């Protein structure tokens, strides 16, 4: 996959990587091996906050909202960087197609401009699947913290999915989630009783999220809220950036910054590991959990093209103690390191996006249950 092209060329000075960077280089070599090897990811960030505990504030949500607002200011430019979100949305909908059930009310958390909705209404690889998902959904509620992004593609004449689906848009921060506006959208009317979180219990059939929840501070709390609002045997399905995403950029910046300044700054956001997510889903009380991983590698002409695309996607760094500028000399040095360690044969720069897919179900007496230990009537040695 190729990202948006760039005509900017940065000149750099050659430098060699010396002994202080052996630890970073060793980690990078392992990451490069894992690109085509068995699944194994680094624990870069753990969100395993116990139930009821005070969660750690890692991300500035106000900054993230401003970044998404800015990304949507130029709709045409914003759409040119939808390639990754659209690709993952299609893969998410392919998984949803395998679950043959009706979705009376579906909530799309962190919907952006509507990549999931476009994927639901788009043409599938198998023509027999065209229109199948549309027929299964009665109502879909798009939620997004950036109002500009939420309404970017809301014109039904230009974007037919707005007519093909029964869509309600609600501006909200997914970290808060429970708001009177969302409750009104779910019930179809304004509540006559004083607002309470308990009103969300067993209120929706399906919750879906595409490349959004990796920016949530209280991820365990969000997973519990989602499960609470699902009906028994309700479905939660999501994708998120995880673990080794952008390891090429991360290690190149680390090496360059150590060489230039003798220190490391948090220039890329921490991400949850696939093992973290399995534990968090279990801790939140989901049943029949399925987690799988894709590595999507996108090639860019240069480092600035990658960084511009991340900015225009609204995926810039939002860590609380992040640096507020990137020195030109650091960009030059990082690009040189990137090319030396990771460049493709055609001299483009690969960027690996690790996508974690989550599926979990709210417990229900009707769900399949494992047989009791010792109840099998066939011995394994007889089969083998």
Structure description:
The chain is built from 15 helices and seven strands. It has 384 residues and is an alpha/beta fold. It has a single domain, classed as Vaccinia Virus protein VP39 (Rossmann fold). A seven-stranded mixed sheet has the order 3-2-1-4-5-7-6, sandwiched between helices. Helix 1 runs antiparallel to helix 11, helix 4 (83-97) crosses helix 5 (115-121) and helix 10 (219-229) packs across helix 12. The protein is globular. It starts with 21 loop residues before the first helix and ends with a helix. The model is unreliable at 6-25 and 31-52 (pLDDT under 50).
Going across the biggest sheet, name each strand in turn.
3-2-1-4-5-7-6
Second rung of CATH, namely the architecture: 3-Layer(aba) Sandwich
What portion of residues is helical? 25-40%
Total number of helical segments?
15
Molecular shape: globular
| Largest sheet report | 7 strands, mixed
Q: SSE order, as H and E? A: HHHHEHHEHHEHEHEHHEHHEH
The Rg value, from CA coordinates, equals 22 Å
List the helices and strands and how they pair.
Elements: H1 22-34, H2 61-72, H3 75-80, H4 83-97, E1 103-109, H5 115-121, H6 132-136, E2 137-144, H7 147-150, H8 161-164, E3 167-171, H9 180-187, E4 204-210, H10 219-229, E5 230-241, H11 247-261, H12 274-284, E6 287-300, H13 303-313, H14 328-342, E7 349-361, H15 380-383
Parallel strand pairs: 1-2, 1-4, 2-3, 4-5
Antiparallel strand pairs: 5-7, 6-7
Helix pairs in contact: 1-11, 4-5, 10-12, 11-14
């Amino acid at each position: 996959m190729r990202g948006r092209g760039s005509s900017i060329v940065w000149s750099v000075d050659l430098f060699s990587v010396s002994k202080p960077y052996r630890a970073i280089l060793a980690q990078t070599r392992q990451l490069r091996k894992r690109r085509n090897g068995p699944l194994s990811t680094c624990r870069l960030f753990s969100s395993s906050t116990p139930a009821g505990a005070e969660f750690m504030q890692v991300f500035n949500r106000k900054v993230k909202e401003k970044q998404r607002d800015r990304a949507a200011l130029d709709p045409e430019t914003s759409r040119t960087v939808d390639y990754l979100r659209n690709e993952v949305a299609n893969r998410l909908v392919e998984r949803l197609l395998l679950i043959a059930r009706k979705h009376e009310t579906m909530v799309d958390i962190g919907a952006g401009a509507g990549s999931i909705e476009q994927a639901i209404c788009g043409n599938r690889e198998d023509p027999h699947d065209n229109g199948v998902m549309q027929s299964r959904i009665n109502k879909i509620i798009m939620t997004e913290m950036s109002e500009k992004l939420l309404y970017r593609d809301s014109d039904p004449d230009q974007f037919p999915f707005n007519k093909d689906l029964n869509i309600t848009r609600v501006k909200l921060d997914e970290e808060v989630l429970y708001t009177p506006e969302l409750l009104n959208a779910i019930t179809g009317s304004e509540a006559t009783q004083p607002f309470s979180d308990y009103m969300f219990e067993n209120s929706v059939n399906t919750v879906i999220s595409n490349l959004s929840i990796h920016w949530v501070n209280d991820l365990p709390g969000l997973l519990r809220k989602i499960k609470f609002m699902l009906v028994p045997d309700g479905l939660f399905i999501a994708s998120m950036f995880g673990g080794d995403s952008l390891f090429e950029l991360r290690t190149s910046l680390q090496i360059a910054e150590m060489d230039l300044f003798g220190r490391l700054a948090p220039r890329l956001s921490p991400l949850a590991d696939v093992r973290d997510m399995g534990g968090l889903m279990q801790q939140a009380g989901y049943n029949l959990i399925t987690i799988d991983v894709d590595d999507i590698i996108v090639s860019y002409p240069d480092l600035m093209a990658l960084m511009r695309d991340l900015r225009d996607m609204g995926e810039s760094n939002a860590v609380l103690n992040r640096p507020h500028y990137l020195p030109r000399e650091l960009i030059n040095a990082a690009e040189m390191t990137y090319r030396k360690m990771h460049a493709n044969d055609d001299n483009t720069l690969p960027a690996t996006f690790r996508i974690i897919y989550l599926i979990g179900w709210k417990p229900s007496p009707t769900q399949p249950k494992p047989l009791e230990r010792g109840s099998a009537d066939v011995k394994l040695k007889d089969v083998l």
